[in-house]
Amino acid sequence: MTAQATALLVAFLATVLVLVKPLGGYIAVVMEGADHPLRRIGRPLERAIYRVCGVDPDESMGWSSYSIVLLAFNAAGAVLLYALQRTQAWLPLNPQHFANLRPATAFNTAISFVTNTDWQGYSGESAMSDLTQMAGLAVQNFLSAATGLVVAIALIRGFARRETAAIGNCWADLTRATLYVLLPLSLILAIALAATGVIQTLHPDQTVTTLERAHSQVLPMGPVASQEAIKELGTNGGGFFNANSAHPYENPTPLSNFLEMVAIALIPAALTYTFGRLVGDTRQGWAVLATMLILFVGLAALAMSSEQHGNPRLTALGVDAAPSADQPGGNMEGKEARFGIAGSALFATVTTGTSCGAVNSMHDSYLPLGGLVPLFSMMLGEVVLGGVGTGLYSILLFAIVGVFIAGLMIGRTPEYLGKKIEAFEMKMCAIAILVMPVVVLVGTAVAVSVAAGRAGAANPGPHGFSEILYAFTSAGNNNGSAFAGLSADTPFYDVALGIVMWLGRYWPIVAVLAVAGSLAAKKRVPVTPGTLPTHGPTFVILLIGTIVLVGALTFVPALALGPIVEHLRLWGGGR
Amino acid sequence: MKTVIRPALALLLAMTVIAGFAYPLIVTGIAQVLFPRRANGSLIVEHGRPIGSRLIGQAFSAPRDFWGRPSATLPRPYDALDSGGSNLGPLNPALVAVVRARIAALHAADPGNRARVPVDLVTASASGLDPDISLAAAEYQAGRVARARGLPFATVRAMIAAHAKHRWLGLFGEPRVNVLELNRALDAASTARRGTRPPGAVAGRGAPDG
Questions:
Q1: Is B24 on the interface with A (CB under 8 A)?
Q2: Looking at B69-168, which runs of residues are DSSP E strands?
Q3: What phi and psi values does residue A117 have, to the nearest 5 degrees?
Q4: How many A-B residue pairs are in contact by the CB < 8 A criterion?
Q5: Chain A residues with beta carbon closer than 8 angstroms to that of B81
Q6: What is the pLDDT of residue B206?
Q7: pTM
Q8: How confident is the model at residue A399 (pLDDT cuts 50, 70, 90)?
Q9: Which of A287, A285, A261 is nearest to A152 (CA)?
């Protein structure tokens, strides 16, 4: 790792850490329904929304009602998005006259955007009408992030409340998360990005005549900055353009790159503080954040140092890949000159440790260990910061498993934040944690077993297997990034990945809400000398151990067939 | 069930109006007022016509021009409607073959230059539209460009230095130079020195868009 890479990592962490407390505290205030300056402005709008919907924001729901509302709302979003794609040719705001999408593509994309995955089988420049982009994809960027956020808040309430069945009003939570958290942050970020050169225009595409060859070059235009902002803040990751955040109109400068990385990590990191604040002990939140960041630093360091190596097959041809004052060096295939190695490898770790999936470099062209980092970051269950809301609720599930294991070792009834962890919670945690590995591994196994699955791989040998494994890992974790050589817009992959995304999203969500309801109903047990403290280094180590053990035990065999064997072949001199 | 579906649709509709339409329109309005040039694509305008964007690279292959990053877009390099990378894996024989061909092309255009080739000059960018090359990649080509244009080597190197961007705060970004801007500056210098671009390169410039 170069000194510059280390400095960039430190600057990134410092910026995120400075913002955690103010934003986390603000989210706590918003989600408690308390008064705050933005609400004074937004109140009439918020009230109007409740009136239009015919809901009472103060009516608190049990976990099953909360789940039904959330699922119905997400299903409605998926159906509308599917319908928009299938009819866009006949609807207004389609200046490029794009055709209706094929059923399989529309099915995949509808689920992809509603589940916060934003896996894109289509190419952004040449498939979706403006109406589909605005009324469909962009709206789901907000609503899928709000969905993750409210589930995390509901789980926090499960810990914070006692002897009640109620975990909040889902309608009010969704509305407040969107109006007071996601929209204002997006507005600020979008304008900052536009200042760096991200385009934001309703002008039609620009045709220019190039300098040397007198070709015409069509420069695609569009309202990119507004979509870019929520794409990062909502850990969505669906790009306006095919090249995503590698495209100079989505990410033009090193500064925009830094802003985007911070934006991706911002809300997931801040929610740990929200958690601590709402359960009445901020040390609990810091312990969770420390766990996330320790894992993050390890993964980022591995990615940055791996990619700083030149590809030995290329250096053998006379390529200079050594870092110097004049070049980043390293493995520059699939990377942009302005981001170099540090700005690309750090982005790759941020975007896969969270469930964002935006990319500013092509992960498919990473060296084997560099490519293993994004893959393994997702396999840990999106807890290395994680998605908006999903990161927090997923790591809290691991925390519950961790205290359960510790409880077994010391022979006491496990408890976390004063709530006894019993059979029901453990069953729900096991379901929520295990559904992801099941859908990922079964999906990969099916894909490599059938011709339609194998046909998608673009690269030969173990790398082709990695492409398929990456696709299902990305779908099962609702990440959305890809080893993009894979030809994924086929009926097989559209349907298979669509199903994996749906199960990987909603199965855990219902289980988490069930845990929330069950915990809320419990009494709070007093702290005794025998209580395992869950805010100190011991707990952080326990939690890291639990996460890594579950992730590693599940996925190391699959990784051995892909990146690990590839690494040995690249550096061992084999072919 | 009715108590769920009606509010679900109503909330979806309300959010579509707010997040789908109002939000991007407000951002567009603000960006167009505060940073109109950047919000509209950082276009370079010459004689009232856009000839490119500062942010989007163009294909160069004549010895007299600096070449940019190899581009994997189809059907031709730097096609801005098909942004993306090669997605070739590190062990893929196709990657080794294409890099070998790029090195051969650089050597053919500059037979005397046997320096090791900077990696970014022979590897495809992520977007296929990368506007920059590293300073090392520019220095590597300086001799060829100076000879082809009949400019003193020191002049070309001075122009690289004048257009170089360095790490901001020693931390953000990489040492690099914008290829389109550098080639335009060279054109301006060459024009001042001895007329205009050769006829082949000039044809079509200023012609109506195709």
A1: yes
A2: 117-118, 132-134, 164-165
A3: -85, -50
A4: 409
A5: 125-126, 218, 220
A6: 32
A7: 0.95
A8: very high
A9: A285
Whether residue B91 lies inside any domain: the answer is: yes
Contact A226 B126 (CB under 8 A): no
pLDDT band for position A551 (cuts 50, 70, 90): confident
How does the average pLDDT of chain A come out, rounded? 95
Segment A269-290 mean pLDDT: 97
In terms of residue numbers, what domain contains B46?
42-194
The partner residue sitting opposite A200, judged by closest CB among B19, B28, B96, is B28
Both B79 and B132 in a single domain?
yes
CB contact (8 A) between residue B134 and residue A485: no
Confidence at residue B205, expressed as pLDDT on a 0 to 100 scale: 33
Q: Is the confidence at residue B208, as pLDDT, over 80?
A: no
Kindly state whether residues B66 and B89 are assigned to the same domain.
Answer: yes
d(CA A441, CA A376): 13
B13 and B101, same domain (yes or no): no
Instruction: Report the C-alpha gap between B88 and A366 in whole angstroms.
Output: 9
Is B92 in Cβ contact with A570 (below 8 Å)?
no
Closest partner CB to A217 (pick from B24, B58, B99) = B58
B84 and B137 both lie in a single domain: yes
Dihedral (CA of B135, B140, B146, B152) sign: positive
Residue A494 has phi, psi (to 5 degrees) of -55, -45
* Across A356-382, average pLDDT: 96
- Tell me whether residue B199 is in a domain: no
**Interface probe with B: pick from A123, A212, A467, most Cβ of B within 10 Å:** A212
Residue range B125-148: average pLDDT? 97
Question: Vertex A459, ends A456 and A463: CA angle to 5°?
Answer: 100
In this predicted model, what pLDDT tens digit does every residue of A198-250 receive, in sequence order? Answer: 999 988 889 998 888 667 899 999 999 999 999 999 999 998 899 999 999 99
Q: Which residues of A touch B184 (CB under 8 A)?
A: 211
Contact B125 A334 (CB under 8 A): yes
Q: Which A positions 136-195 lie with beta carbon below 8 A of chain B?
A: 136, 138-139, 141-143, 171, 174-175, 178-179, 183, 186-187, 190-191, 194-195
Q: Do A210 and B52 touch (CB under 8 A)?
A: yes
pLDDT of residue B48: 86
- Determine how many CB atoms are found less than 10 A away from the CB of residue A431: 18
Contact of B42 with chain A, judged by CB distance below 8 Å, is answered with yes
Per residue in A159-170, pLDDT tens? Answer: 999 999 999 999
Chain B partners within 8 Å of A202 (Cβ)? 28
Beta-carbon separation of A174 and B81 below 8 A: no
In a domain, B206, yes or no: no
Q: A566 CB contacts (<8 Å, ≥6 apart)?
A: A368, A461, A462, A463, A466, B89, B90, B91
B80 and B9 part of one domain: no
| ipTM of the complex in this document | 0.94
Number of helices and strands (H, E) in chain B? 8, 6
| Residue B187 C-alpha, separation from nearest chain A C-alpha, in angstroms | 10
Same domain, residue pair B72 and B36: no
pLDDT for B201 equals 41
Q: Do B176 and B136 have their domain in common?
A: yes
Into how many domains does chain B fold? 2
CB nearest to B80's CB, from A219, A318, A339: A219
Contact status of B4 with chain A (Cβ, < 8 Å): yes
Residue B101 lies in a domain: yes
Question: Could you tell me if B29 and B85 lie in one domain?
Answer: no
Whole-angstrom Cα distance, residue A420 to residue A525? Answer: 7
- Chain A contact present for B95, CB below 8 A: yes
For residue B209, pLDDT over 90 is answered with no
pLDDT at A190 over 50: yes
Residue type for position A58: D
Give the separation between CA A315 and CA A319, rounded to whole angstroms.
Answer: 5
| A126 confidence band (pLDDT: 50, 70, 90) | confident
